[in-house]
Design brief:
CATH superfamily: P-loop containing nucleotide triphosphate hydrolases
GO molecular function: ATP binding; ATP hydrolysis activity; transmembrane transporter activity
CATH topology: Rossmann fold
Shape: globular
Pfam family, one: ABC_tran
CATH architecture: 3-Layer(aba) Sandwich
Radius of gyration: 17 Å
Protein name: ABC transporter, ATP-binding family protein
Strand order of the largest sheet: 5-4-1-2-10
Distance between the termini: 24 Å
Largest sheet: 5 strands, antiparallel
Domain ABC transporter: 2-221
Number of strands: 10
Helix content: 25-40%
Number of helices: 6
InterPro entries: AAA+_ATPase (IPR003593), ABC_transporter-like_ATP-bd (IPR003439), ABC_transporter-like_CS (IPR017871), ABC_transpr_LolD-like (IPR015854), MacB-like_ATP-bd (IPR017911), P-loop_NTPase (IPR027417)
Structural class: alpha/beta
């Protein structure tokens, strides 16, 4: 599902970046990525999603060399094939929960917002306990509810690849477990691959594989 070869990336004017000799993640795997702050975990997810492009090396997702696509093609691929739960959530303050969930369908022509998608959005909200919050604005929600809204948005396209960047950060234990279980259940239901960055080692037993990017013999960051 994910194939990375001789990957390197550095932010302009900064000493931090990512260097990965090779990384393979099979389809349907549930993988956690751990490592200290600043190790490049978020950068790695953004390289896989095509939000960033590597300085050298290749990133392939489901046989497509994402790193070789132009900006428009990478954006279309990401929106249609990848569900991304951002660490900052990136909910739009002026949109309701419902409109935040369906927003990807309104900003990209490769997605069609039809009745089936609208019904799926409402079903996801019901399943995550947000059925009575669809008209609410993000500022009216708890942190856990905002996290769940971001997860619903990521799951709406039924993506082949789910990327979660600290999706359980700043949540209480019950909500942490609920968010991870939602992602795992969605991945299993759609036979999708789940790649999650986390600092919470209590959640690691829920994953098939753990990658420590600072551990000798594992993919590493600089």
């Amino acid at each position: 599902m994910i194939e990375i070869e001789r990957l390197s990336f550095r932010y302009p004017g900064a000493g931090t970046g990512v260097a990965l000799p090779a990384l393979r993640i099979e389809r349907g795997a549930r993988v956690a990525i751990i490592g200290p702050s600043g190790a490049g975990k978020t950068t790695l997810l953004k390289l896989i999603a095509g939000i960033l492009t590597p300085g050298t090396g290749t990133v392939r997702v489901d046989g497509i060399t994402v790193s070789a696509l132009d900006d428009d093609a990478r954006r279309n691929f990401r929106i249609s094939r990848i569900g991304f739960v951002f660490q900052e959530l990136e909910l739009l303050d002026y949109l309701s929960v419902y409109d935040n969930i369906v927003h990807p369908y309104r900003i990209n022509r490769v997605l069609k917002l039809d009745r089936q998608v609208r019904d799926r959005a409402r079903a996801l909200a019901e399943h995550t306990g947000l059925g009575d919050k669809l008209a609410a604005l993000p500022r009216e929600l708890s942190q856990g509810e905002r996290q769940r809204a971001a997860v619903c948005r990521a799951l709406l396209t039924e993506p082949d690849l789910l990327l979660a960047d600290e999706a359980t950060g700043n949540l209480d234990p019950a909500n942490k477990l609920r968010i991870i279980e939602l992602l795992i259940q969605a991945a299993e239901r759609n036979r999708a691959t789940l790649l999650a960055v986390t600092h919470d080692h209590e959640l690691l037993p829920l994953f098939d594989r753990v990658i420590d990017i600072r551990q000798p013999g594992s993919p590493r960051a600089e």
